[in-house]
Design goal:
Number of helices: 8
Strand content: 25-35%
CATH class of the largest domain: Alpha Beta
Helix content: 25-40%
Largest sheet: 6 strands, antiparallel
CATH topology of the largest domain: Beta-Lactamase
Radius of gyration: 25 Å
Shape: elongated
Length: 250
């Protein structure tokens, strides 16, 4: 919670607000609102002006590039500004209730990007591998393309093999996150979407995008987990070039 008070809009806040301030927390208490948030003032000043005119403001997932730790940082916020009325029916301050939604927004961006990549792969006929995981018996059956991507013998993949056999080729730096995402999908029945690096049979690194959904039974236990996977190495290389890094996917 944040309060701007008086003609100078002096800043007051509770402990929960301190992490939002980052390095600027020192000396922040009692500092004018405009000075405290000078780096985003051009974005929020119209909202502040509207609030001091007596209006209520609510913003959902608004992007603000704040300097929380001394450098610009993309972040998204859902917040409200409410006027605090003083004597003679005059607005004496502004009350801000806020929460950061950066993780939610980025997750949605990643989901849309993955969906677009899948649609692009389908439209141009890129090879797409598919799998079906019998979670209860830990047997993954997969088509030939999926088996090739994950360095598993196609005959074994067609007959069914433990899921662990499809994980050994995942880059060790990416494996913990992939396992966590799989576990969360199995536990909650969530949509699964992940992009990570794998090693091919020659030891070369490729990027893949995997998407699926865990299917729960009436008791809430996961019983099936179907999905698809395709190579996005070229996409990652193009993205790196657009960002000006010129580096190969690592």
């Amino acid at each position: 919670m944040f309060l701007a008070w008086g003609l100078d809009r002096l800043s007051f806040f509770n402990d929960a607000y301190r992490p939002i301030l980052g390095q600027r927390v020192k000396g922040a208490m009692g500092r004018p609102f405009e000075q405290l948030w000078h780096d985003i003032w051009s974005d929020i000043e119209p909202l502040v002006r509207e609030t001091y005119s007596g209006g209520n403001v609510e913003m959902i997932d608004m992007r603000l590039d704040i300097h929380r730790d001394g450098v610009p940082e993309e972040s998204w916020w859902t917040f409200s500004y409410s006027p605090v009325w003083g004597d003679n029916n005059v607005v004496a301050g502004l009350l801000c209730i806020t929460r950061e939604t950066t993780e939610k927004v980025r997750a949605e961006q990643d989901r849309k990007k993955a969906a677009a990549r899948l649609q692009a792969a389908l439209s141009i006929g890129d090879p797409i591998g598919s799998w079906e995981w019998d979670v209860v018996n830990d047997r993954v059956t997969a088509d030939q393309q999926f088996a090739v991507i994950y360095n598993v013998d196609p005959a074994r993949a067609a007959a069914g093999t433990p899921v662990s056999e499809f994980l050994h080729c995942i880059h060790p730096d990416d494996l913990p996150l992939v396992q966590s995402q799989i576990n969360n999908a199995v536990r909650y029945g969530d949509h699964y979407q992940s992009e990570y690096r794998i090693f091919d049979r020659m030891g070369e690194i490729h990027w893949v995008s995997a998407q699926g959904r865990a299917v729960l039974d009436a008791t809430g236990s996961c019983i099936r987990f179907p999905g698809v996977c395709f190579d996005i190495t070229i996409n990652k290389k193009i993205e790196a070039e657009r960002e000006g890094t010129g580096s190969r996917p690592r």
